[in-house]
Amino acid sequence: MQVKDVMTRGVDLADPNMKTRDAAIKMRDDNVGALPVGEAGKLIGMVTDRDIVVRAVAGDGPAENMAVRQAMSEGIYYCFDDESLERAGELMAEHQVHRLPVLDHDKKLVGIVALADLAANGDEGLRAAAAALYGISQPTGAPRQ
User: Fold this and answer.
1) Element (H, E) at 137
2) SS3 43
3) How many independent structural domains does the chain possess?
4) Which CATH number is 112's domain given?
């Protein structure tokens, strides 16, 4: 089974200049915990509900005026739509993330795959989710931001 078989499609890129409050409202309204962030049609990062809480709400300055660019996670981890569920789980474990943006080979965002998407898709998905969860749960020795 490939990532494209289980991913959530129709995902929009959030503007990096959008205010964190607006991103939080979008997450609430869409019932999601993360938004991919893009500029000029290119994926540049991800912002999660945790990012907003830790960097905006609990950070310095007024949270409602902080741009998503200031709160989003650095580094972009993604998978391709034709990769296996096992590979998606490996990437989640390696980078200790619960979801990955999914790109086509033109590097266009085509969806998001979450740990729950893996787990909900048979034995192959359960194995991939279990491996991902094990890796995500390992201490890194570095404080989380």
Assistant:
1) none
2) strand
3) 1
4) 3.10.580.10
d(CA 142, CA 66): 25
Q: What is the pLDDT of residues 3-37, one digit of tens each?
A: 999 999 988 889 999 999 999 999 999 999 999 99
Give the structural domain span for 106: 3-136
Phi-psi region of 76 (alpha: psi -120 to 50; beta: other; left: phi over 0): beta
DSSP single-letter state for residue 135: H
Closest CA to 19 of 58, 69, 73, 74: 69
Per-residue pLDDT of the chain (145 residues; tens, 9 = 90+): 999 999 999 888 899 999 999 999 999 999 999 999 998 888 999 999 999 998 888 877 677 779 999 999 878 899 999 999 999 999 999 988 889 999 999 989 999 999 888 988 788 877 887 888 778 777 765 555 4
Q: Angle 135-81-117 (CA atoms, 0-180°, nearest 5)?
A: 50
Sign of CA dihedral 97, 99, 48, 12: positive
Asked if residue 38 is part of any domain, the answer here is yes
